[in-house]
Amino acid sequence: MTEILEVLVHRRAVKAFEPVEIPQVLREQILDAARHAPSSFNMQPYRFFWVESSPRKATVAKLCLGQMPAATATALVVAVADIGSLAATSQAQLEWMRRSGFSDAKVRDYERTAKIGRILFMPGPFGIFGAFKWAVFRLLNLWKTMGMPPVFHQDLLKWATKSTSLACENLMIASEALGLNTCPMEGFDGRRLSRFLGLSTRYHEIVMVIAIGKKSAAYAEPPQWRRPLDATVTVL
Question: What is the pTM of this model?
Answer without folding.
Answer: 0.91
